[in-house]
Specification:
By secondary structure, the chain is α+β, with helices and mostly antiparallel strands. The chain has helices spanning 19-23, 28-34, 40-60, 118-121, 127-134, 138-159, 224-231, and strands spanning 5-10, 70-72, 78-80, 87-93, 96-102, 106-112, 172-177, 180-185, 188-190, 194-198, 204-210, 220-221. It is globular, with a radius of gyration of 18 Å.
Length: 233
């Protein structure tokens, strides 16, 4: 059985690499999408995300960087053309970009544990989750919320949906048991997906959603310069 893997890039506050070298590796349509972001830091995250996917797919398949092309599913989920047996999903937050690889559909979400206002995120939570968070010490609530949220978001992304899709986040319930995370949809237990939290940074929450039970527990960190060197050739 092929092992599910998660790879990541830590984005430095002051990148030492040449951004133009990275841009030159991509087609005009990707650059246009990248430049549609208003802020430079968001453009950088988008560009690095694309670079990470290209690097990983080309490493795992016989595709060359020049033949790499995206396609989009009916739900709007991106995939790589001519790479039916390898699926990926991306997420980024703060200083991290992460990518999960699997031979089946997969979802991943990373979130920085910022301070939260429970009133503002109530619509994302099931009633039991709201009570669970309220019963948790105040200083631990943000961490608990992001553990719940990244689990939900990774599941929705594995299905190819967003939070505005046909399954509302509030209809999902996450429970933390002795055997791991348990997911319910409208009170019905979901048995065909595995939600696995992974450690990457104490200030971040990261969860992967996969049908596989064979998941590498360590996140592999890749240096951005190694990626630039590989995809530029």
């Amino acid at each position: 059985m092929v092992e599910v893997e998660v790879f990541s890039i830590n984005i430095p506050e002051e990148p030492k690499f040449n951004l133009s070298d990275l841009k030159s590796s991509f087609s005009d349509d990707i650059i246009q999408k990248v430049e549609s972001f208003r802020f430079e830091k968001d453009q950088l995250r988008s560009l690095i995300s694309n670079a990470l996917v290209r690097y990983l797919i080309c490493e795992k398949t016989e595709l060359s960087p020049s033949s790499f092309r995206y396609e989009v599913s009916e739900n709007g989920k991106p995939a790589v053309r001519n790479s039916e047996n390898l699926h990926f999903n991306l997420s980024h937050s703060g200083a991290w970009v992460v990518c999960a690889l699997d031979t089946d559909e997969i979802g991943i979400d990373i979130e920085k544990k910022n301070t939260i206002d429970l009133e503002e995120v109530n619509y994302l939570l099931d009633n039991n989750e709201k009570e669970f968070i309220q019963a948790t010490p105040v200083k631990e609530r943000a961490s608990l919320f992001y553990s719940i949220w990244t689990a939900k978001e990774s599941y929705l992304k594995a299905l190819g949906y967003g939070i505005s899709g046909p399954i509302s986040p509030g209809s999902l319930e996450i429970q933390f048991g002795s055997n791991g995370i348990v997911l319910f949809i409208r009170k019905n237990k979901v048995d065909d997906w595995n939600l696995v939290p992974l450690e990457i940074d104490p200030d971040y929450s990261l969860t992967v959603c996969t049908r596989s039970k064979n998941i590498k527990k360590e996140v592999t960190i890749i240096d951005i310069q190694d990626i630039i060197d590989a995809i530029s050739h």
